[in-house]
Amino acid sequence: MNPQLNQLQQIIDYQFKNTDLLDQALVHRSSLNEQKQFSQSNERFEFLGDAVLELWISDRIFDKFTKFDEGKLTNLRALVVCTENLAKVGASFDLGNFIYLSHGEEKHGGRTNHSILADTFEAVLGSIYL
């Protein structure tokens, strides 16, 4: 097992029964050609994590903002789960340091790229859900 996975599990305060799920959540598509141990990127996990996050946030704001109509709830949810905010959350625990990236993507700032951080954060949520 990748020793960095233990460190990340400590940071997020969640222990995986199957660390392969977390490992897969960290695979950016740019790394697929350079790191042959991976056959799939984290995009499927991102898809699932996005849905899980949207449901959780929807539930929280639905309970907290009882006077808001559907339109206001939708706008608030969009503000909360925007790329910028998700990237900030990922950056707050140095998620970028754990992502498998190609050399080119890393050279061009991929570890701090907001889109990559946000997408990987969603993928990690997807792996936790699984």
Q: Could you characterize what this model shows?
A:
With 130 residues, this protein is mostly helical. It is 62% helix and 0% strand. It contains 7 helices and no strands. The protein has helices at residues 3-12, 19-25, 43-64, 70-80, 83-92, 103-107, 114-129. Helix 3 packs across helix 4 (70-80), helix 3 (43-64) packs across helix 7 and helix 5 (83-92) crosses helix 7. The chain is globular and about 50 Å long. The relative contact order is 0.20. The mean pLDDT is 95.
Task: Annotate the secondary structure layout.
Blueprint: H1 3-12, H2 19-25, H3 43-64, H4 70-80, H5 83-92, H6 103-107, H7 114-129
Report the portion of residues in β strands. Answer: under 5%
Distance between the terminal alpha carbons, to the nearest Å? 19 Å
- The SSE order reads HHHHHHH
Largest beta-sheet details: none
Mean pLDDT: 95
Q: How many beta-strand runs? A: 0
* Helicity, as a percent range: 55-70%
Structural class: mainly alpha
- Poorly predicted tracts of residues: none
The number of helical runs is 7
CA-atom Rg in angstroms:
16 Å
What is the molecular shape? globular
Keywords:
130 residues, mainly alpha, 7 helices, globular
Could you give a quick summary of the protein structure above?
By secondary structure, the protein is an all-alpha fold.
